[in-house]
Amino acid sequence: MKKCNIHKDVVTNIVHVCKVTSLLYFVLSVFLASTATARARVDIVVFDYVSEAGLDQPWAALALTDYSIKLINRTGSYRAMPREQLRRLANRWNRGKKVSLSFETKDALRQFLGASALIEGRLEQTRTGFSFIGTLINPDTGIIDDISFNIKKFSIAEAQTLLARNISAAIDVKLPEPDDVSIVGTDNNEAYVKYWKALYAYENNETQKALILARESESSDENYIEPSILIGRIYLEKTELSKAEAKFKSVAETAPSDPRAYFWSGFTDFLSRKYGAAEHQLKKAIDIDSGNPEYYHQLGLLYSKTFEYSKAVDIFLTAVDIDPSLAETWYEIAAIYSRMKKGTEAVEYAGKAVEWGGRPMIVRLKNDSDFGWLSDNPKFLWILKSE
């Protein structure tokens, strides 16, 4: 990576952050040592770009985030975690709180994932046009690369071209053409823009607006699977399971190598109590993407539901081996052992759930009848008082 001229105060602040969080990094290294073989490699962590207040195209910040990730993954030299997976991981670290991640938290996540660098940025509207202010940072070396750019009139295609050029210079690797369909998913600009507008609406709890925009996107390009997946997820939220099932199966036919279609099909079948079909679909998702812990978690829930506890525990342990921050998974393991009246194991994994999930896990443990028989267990009581 090439070092660029950034104000020395920025470097000083980053060095300070590294010192402040060094103890946290040491603790995380214990987990990294045990999960390095299971977790997919991550070299660069791209956090959601921020759209400043008053921006006419706030959806563009999300689109450019996803574009950066897919661009990096196409290099063959570097690997970035998919946006949706990173969002869920960051949400767990924030314990569900709707607050922006501090730089300290972002860098702790980078260390946790074993990445060497992180990218952050923001998109804002100025008097002369639009500005993207972004940096690629390696806190371990203090090297910071500026990937910012300015454009007079906003165009997602121009923004992608400039961002690709700057990321390419920062990591010193030739990148694919900015308009490569395999990166953006469609050659139809209208479909692309409407999808990202739909996703922005969906993530801001405007579900009906998101559904309308996603349908328009899908109509513009029936082979563009992103709006179809979003429509299926909205159907799930509306508990329109038959519609969701049909949509996800259609996606699987269009893109048979995409694990998300099988995962969401399996999840839909699980909700419909079609456990055999759900198991088949979830296993197909895992076959394609064996490094996604949430796929294992859902399969573990299925086995737990069908009382195949030994299988469930094995699958859940695979999930937390990949990502130990899955408090919900630790909790499910504890619940299984508690139902089996194995107190030592139940208490051990309940402690893991609280370690990663904090107070919400304590509240669940207190209110879950599966753990009622442990009410006089000193170690369990100590966990409940560990807030």
In short:
This protein has helices at 8-20, 22-35, 59-73, 83-93, 103-113, 156-171, 181-184, 189-203, 207-220, 225-237, 241-254, 259-271, 275-288, 293-305, 309-322, 327-339, 343-357, 359-367, 378-384; strands spanning 44-46, 50-51, 117-126, 129-138, 143-146, 149-151.
Description:
With 387 residues, the chain is α/β, with parallel strands linked by helices. The chain folds into 3 domains: 8-184, TolB, N-terminal domain (Rossmann fold, 3-Layer(aba) Sandwich), CATH 3.40.50; 185-238; 326-387, no CATH class. Helix content is 61%, strand content 8%. Strands 1, 2, 3, 4, 5 and 6 form a 6-stranded mixed beta sheet that branches. Helix 15 (309-322) runs antiparallel to helix 16 and helix 16 (327-339) runs antiparallel to helix 17 (343-357). The longest helix is centred in the middle third of the chain and has 16 residues, at 156-171. The radius of gyration is 22 Å and the shape is globular. It starts with 7 loop residues before the first helix and ends with a helix.
Question: Which characteristics define this entry?
Answer:
387 residues, alpha/beta, Rossmann fold, 3 domains, 6-stranded mixed β-sheet, 61% helix, 8% strand, globular, disordered N terminus
User: For this structure, what is the CATH homologous superfamily of the largest domain?
Assistant: TolB, N-terminal domain
| Radius of gyration based on Cα positions | 22 Å
Task: Kindly name the structural category.
Answer: alpha/beta
Look up the CATH topology of the largest domain: Rossmann fold
The rough form would be described as globular
